[in-house]
Amino acid sequence: MKILFDQGTPAPLKEFLPAHDVSTAYELGWSTLKNGELLSAAESHGFEVFITTDTNLRYQQNLIQRKVSLVVLSTTSWPRIKPNVSEIIDAVNKSASNSFIEVNIPFND
């Protein structure tokens, strides 16, 4: 599966998705694109899943017409995300065209 990480998605997460082709918006020179432009670029380049930490994305964009699946993480904090990687992998594996999955990352005590 071809996956795109948004700016706030921690890059170390890539290591936990070895079966997938993962790129970051930064690596592709897309770090200055706004959400709608970024989603359009992702779709036109064949990305199937877009992983972001922008929890407001669903309210800012009309997602009905989109082909790319969205996986939204509730934080940018790698120390909080790392213990919950299995939930993110499950969300990626369950994603289907035009789906929206939120992964709520709890605060570590």
Automatic annotation (TrEMBL):
Stated name of the protein: Uncharacterized protein
Domain of life where this protein originates: Bacteria
